[in-house]
Here is the input.
Amino acid sequence: MIRILLRYLVLFSLTFLTLSALSFSLVYLFPTEPVTTLTGITPQNLVQHEALVTQYHLDDSYLVQFAHYLGDLFNGNWGVSLFSGEPLLDEIMLALPATIELSAYAMSIVLVVGIPLGCYSGLKAYTGSDYTINSVSVVVNSVPVVWLAVIFILTFSLQFGWLPLSGRINLLFDIPSQTGFLFIDILLTDNIDTARALKDAFLHLILPTLAIAFISTAALVRITRRSVIDVLNQPYIIAARAKGLSSRQIFFRHVLRNALLPALPLLAMQITTLITNAMIVETLFSWPGIGSWLIQAIYQRDYSALRMGMLAVSTLVVMITIAIDLFNRLIDPSREKYESVTI
Amino acid sequence: MSRFSLYDDEAHPSPWQQTWQAFKSSHIALVGLALLMLFVFFAFFAPLVTPYDPNSQNTEALLIPPSWAANGSITHLFGTDALGRDLFSRIMYGCRVTFGTSLLVVIIAMLIGVTIGTIAGMLSGVRSSVMNHLLDALMAIPTLLIAIIIVGILGSGLVNSMWAITLALIPQFIHHTRSFVRSEMKKDYIQSSTLDGANYLQVFYYSILPNMIEMLVVQGALALSVAILDISALGFLNLGAQAPLPELGAILAAGLDAGYLAPWNIALPGITIFLMVLSITIVGDGLRSALRKRVNR
Here is the structure.
């Protein structure tokens, strides 16, 4: 147990080291001066240039520089944005929760809809309802997320005017950001109409969440279905049936647990797709999350923001993936490390 | 003329023929294959079949509705866009750009991934374990993020976005090849050819590769659909293909400007990407289940 935890801790630190090395190498790879990418400040004169170079140890060897870079990372001294001049730490801490919020709601929809549908379809394998569910999920899985979001905007916002077009909440509500998670912030804010603010925030949430959740749900349905069918063909299911268990007991005691375990690693891979989709959808819905922030940064060639944004997002995603992997190992240590189902 | 035959069959079908037999039995898969062939045809012969130059602008014919609409005309089958360019020709060239580059990207990623994966699978010990874990973790980085970084370094453009997507696809191929080679290396037939004196290269070429092709085809189909979605998403965000180049995502983004006036400019490129990905998914699924049937037989 402790060995496993230790191994994953080492794995995480190694990966983080690789990622920060990558983000450090961006300082030299981006087509501006290293000083500018590293600090976000364009030196106005030679004196300032010299001062910055000595402050960030840019004239030392690369290893010394990297050590100082890591030190700065942990001290929260992430440099400022080239474009807005704000400290990057503050900007990322403002944008990241919005993305996490959006992805978390989308993920919960995916889980709540995807797993039951997949199980149902797997249990009724090769019947009419299974074929229907499976073909619908194949079709939905092929829809490009950009197009889906545009269609949503055109029909529900512009054509019918049911749902708001962009943003997280109507600008009339003045919600100071405390945690970054909007619903908690609304509850924490005093002098506003809490019920109306909640309703408004909810209406803003529907379209982007659905646009992200649609595609990943389809993928999860297919993963769960395949996994359930595989488990149903195992000898221990026949044994359970011979023992006289009802199909309900078989399902909850044997099928569900054994089917979801190998599906977990694939779910972890789906998280990557989900976050990519979230980044695209954010841009379309002007959701003030890390995705639209990064895409703004690339449009403005804001190199210092790109460097930190890349590190923050990839660390977050890798952390989630490793956590799921660890969880999978802990609940079933006997399983081979790389065993997982195909769709 | 009767011929002596020990078995009932006229001839033994080769493994590929068996796969084709199993694949053929599914009608949906055949429809998917026909659709895919259509896109392949467009990708190769777009210049021969398009009625107009995809970039020639015609100010006389702005935003003409598609031919099936009440006030559309048959001279422009899918209508025209806000600059008077023929949408049908643009979409056909778009298939060429989007489908062709995705195919290229997948082939490059496959070659690199399989090479590294095989080496990693034949090695063993701590080093390969560390490498594998590290790769698994890096596989989790979103494609869009890698693409943004590459665009930041090299600048935007179709070729740069191709590099980005190649980089993002390689880890998957490495992962699958590696676990396949690992499980295969433990089997007896590999051991017997090793005992015959085959070196690593010969074992790979004569024993492992023929068994791996099926896995590669299925993984390749999966990667191809991912590549198409990514290339068009990058084109849409204006990070990939640049303005006049007819790339499906870029056409979609351009259609957005006049989207409320001319919804077919959004609908048609989107449907094309959708059908492309759908046909690849269906063919990939059909192949997978055909292979499963063949192995189980």
